[in-house]
């Protein structure tokens, strides 16, 4: 029997069985909650948000998701598409600052369940940090993936990285240090990013 030590999974084992019985799309329900950290939302913009994947391929696996519920990219307005694209760029910057990956995979499951998407009716983009040698014998031979960081720790690192981006909204007074980086961002609230038009 293969055994992998993953103590953070106890949260999944001990969760409320009805917690997943939410009405509606999780990409619509989670941003409406007043608990960004619990929902794992690390950043928001006017039209999109970034959320950690609860079942990551690698530490830092996030999804960039438009606020509007649609299964078609073509249904989004130009402003929504531009906001989503800019948030992807900011997310890659935050991933590089927080985790220092050697590369990032970006992907979208288009066309519903046939394309492998578990949530086909709300478009989104996966960003997965990659490191040279991050695939080893465990997934190849043992059919087991080892995650080296708990989601809460990844959240903290990404939250701090997003807060330091130039697009981060000011906090407390002007809320910026001498280099113009945002600071003292509430760790329980998603970092608010604003892009110039």
How would you portray this structure in words?
There is one protein chain. It is built from six helices and six strands; from the N terminus they run αααβββαββααβ. It has a single domain, classed as HIT-like (HIT family, subunit A). By secondary structure, it is α+β, with helices and mostly antiparallel strands. Strand 1 and strand 2 form a beta hairpin. Strands 4-5-3-2-1-6 form a six-stranded mixed beta sheet, with helices on both faces. It starts with 9 loop residues before the first helix and ends in a 5-residue tail after the last strand. Pfam families: HIT.
Explain the layout of strands and helices.
Elements: H1 10-13, H2 26-32, H3 36-39, E1 41-44, E2 48-52, E3 62-66, H4 78-99, E4 103-107, E5 125-130, H5 137-140, H6 151-163, E6 191-192
Parallel strand pairs: 1-6
Antiparallel strand pairs: 1-2, 2-3, 3-5, 4-5
InterPro entries: AP-4-A_phosphorylase, FHIT, HIT-like, HIT-like_sf
Keywords: Nucleotide-binding
Protein name: Bis(5'-nucleosidyl)-tetraphosphatase
Number of DSSP helices? 6
Order of helices and strands: HHHEEEHEEHHE
The CATH homologous superfamily is called HIT-like
Unreliable stretches, pLDDT < 50, 5 or more residues?
172-179
CATH topology: HIT family, subunit A
**Cα separation of the termini:** 55 Å
Mean pLDDT, rounded to whole units? 82
CATH architecture classification name: 2-Layer Sandwich
In percent terms, what proportion of residues is strand?
Answer: 5-15%
Based on Cα principal axes, name the global outline: globular
CATH class: Alpha Beta
> How much helical structure, as a percent, in the residues?
25-40%
Main β-sheet, spatial strand arrangement: 4-5-3-2-1-6
Class based on secondary structure composition and strand pairing: alpha+beta
The number of domains: 1
Taking Cα atoms only, what radius of gyration do you get, to the nearest Å? 17 Å
GO molecular function, one term: nucleotide binding
Motif (Histidine triad motif): 122-126
Biased composition (Basic and acidic residues): 171-191
Region (Disordered): 166-197
């Amino acid at each position: 029997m293969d055994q992998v030590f993953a103590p953070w999974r106890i949260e999944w084992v001990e969760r409320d069985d009805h917690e997943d019985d939410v009405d509606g799309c999780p990409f619509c329900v989670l941003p409406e909650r007043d608990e960004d950290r619990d929902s794992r939302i690390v950043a928001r913009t006017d039209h999109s948000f970034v959320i950690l994947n609860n079942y990551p391929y690698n530490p830092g696996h996030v999804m960039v998701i438009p606020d509007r519920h649609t299964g078609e990219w073509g249904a989004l307005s130009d402003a929504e598409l531009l906001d989503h694209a800019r948030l992807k760029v900011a997310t890659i910057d935050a991933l590089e600052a927080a985790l220092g990956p050697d590369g990032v995979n970006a992907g979208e499951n288009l066309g519903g369940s046939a394309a492998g998407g578990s949530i086909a009716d709300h478009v989104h983009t996966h960003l997965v940090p990659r490191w040279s040698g991050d695939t080893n014998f465990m997934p190849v031979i043992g059919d087991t993936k080892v995650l080296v960081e708990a989601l809460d720790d990844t959240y903290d690192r990404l939250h701090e990285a997003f807060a330091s981006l130039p697009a981060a909204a000011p906090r407390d007074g002007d809320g910026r240090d001498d280099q113009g980086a945002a600071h003292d961002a509430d760790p329980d609230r998603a970092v608010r990013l604003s892009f110039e038009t």
